[in-house]
Model the fold of this input.
Amino acid sequence: MKRIKYLKTKLLYTLGYLACIAVLYSFSVPCVFQTLFSIPCPGCGMTRALRAALQLDFASAFAYHKMFWAVPVGYLYFLFDGRLFNNRRVDKIILISIGAGFIVDWLIKLCNVV
Done:
């Protein structure tokens, strides 16, 4: 019973997050990071990438943001409390690799902007 309530809470968080994203997207709210600093943020292009991936256009998704595949993986980590595998070391390596991937992708974008 407690587990069901816990999963419902996570589902509510998910729906709230998706609602916020939908509102921001609907009103074409610009990226705050890019507005303040005049450079793309580490997540710039992610919305377009995920939209392309949902349409099964993976080449476009990869062109928009190389780390688009990390969103579903990160969501699984959210659902399973950061423990996707039985080995904590494997989980840590995957999460660090995702973080490093975002940083590398961001640095590449910055080099192309300057």
The chain is about 75% helix and 0% strand. Residues 20 and 26 are 10 Å apart (CA to CA).
